[in-house]
Amino acid sequence: MAVGLLAAFALVTYVGGVEDEASAGAQRVPVVRVARDIPRGLTGREAREQGYLEEAAIAAEFRPASAMVDLAAIDLNVAGTDLAAGQVLVDGMFVDPAAAQLTAARRVPEGEVAITVSVDQVRGVAGLISPGDKITVFILDPVLAGAEGEPGGAASRTPVLASNARSFFQGVEVLYIDRTPVALPGEAPAEPVEGEVAVAAPANSGLITLAVPRVSAQMFASVLPENLYFALEAEGLGPEALPPIPVGDDTLPAEPGGVLTPYGSDGRPEETTP
């Protein structure tokens, strides 16, 4: 056992010696590092004077090309996002105060517009849609009454499929739910201050704001809200052309000759089961 302990000690001593030699041989360069978490909006002068930043030295190979060492250059700027302790200060972390204002328009992807639609809990996936989700949008096209003897006509019964849910758009990005937006990169959700009573989030009012090209927004604005029906998409689900349901065809999927499950004749593949 003594021999084993001696061998382990020798190995640790050797490895430590190699690391020391490597560190001693590496060229070290000065950088400025975030000493403690910096909240978005803090000025560079405040960060410098209140101990949020510290001078440090790191190996030259790890120094970012845009690393900053002149703190006077950020005095009048503000932190564009929350900055975590340990980060090396680089150009762009502190920005002009005007650029740091997070207006709603800045959250809209370039080349697109935001448009709000209102749906009830049933048509809005029970309020489970969150900012950043993608949805499939259907339009409910009522089956119109036809002539006597035709589907919907006076002499016929009411069709089982009383509405034709037609595919309107797929992969639609949800920008806001009520007034809660998609968080921008580096933006953390607000946390309650210690000692304060947390306020419950307001109930989902059914207002959903979407980010779409302008021509698609025109289409949304032309549809009656009560004819919209949303489906929440799984992550990574691609688009799929969906033909309209044949008007007057009351054959149901699970009837003889049809498909017994929504997932195909063989059911849902095991690898896709939640």
Helix content: 10-25%
In round numbers, the mean pLDDT is 79
Class computed from helices, strands and strand pairing = alpha+beta
Q: Into which percentage range does the β-strand content fall? A: 15-25%
Largest sheet, strands/sense/barrel: 6 strands, antiparallel
When the domains are counted, the total is 2
What general form does the structure show?
elongated
For the CA atoms, what is the radius of gyration?
A: 30 Å
* Unreliably modeled segments: 1-16, 190-202
Total number of β-strand segments? 10
For the record, give the distance between the C-alpha atoms at the N and C termini, rounded to a whole number: 51 Å
Description:
This protein has 274 residues and is of the alpha+beta class. The chain has 2 domains: 24-95, Type Iii Antifreeze Protein Isoform Hplc 12 (Alpha-Beta Complex); 104-186 and 203-269, no CATH class. Helix content is 15%, strand content 22%. It is built from 4 helices and 10 strands; from the N terminus they run αβαβββαβββββαβ. The protein has helices spanning 2-25, 44-49, 104-107, 214-221; strands at residues 28-34, 53-59, 78-79, 94-95, 113-118, 134-142, 163-177, 180-181, 207-212, 228-232. Strands 5, 6, 7, 8, 9 and 10 form a 6-stranded antiparallel β-sheet that branches. β7 and β8 (180-181) form a beta hairpin. The longest helix is centred in the N-terminal third of the chain and has 24 residues, at 2-25. The chain is elongated and about 85 Å long. The model is unreliable at 1-16 and 190-202 (pLDDT under 50).
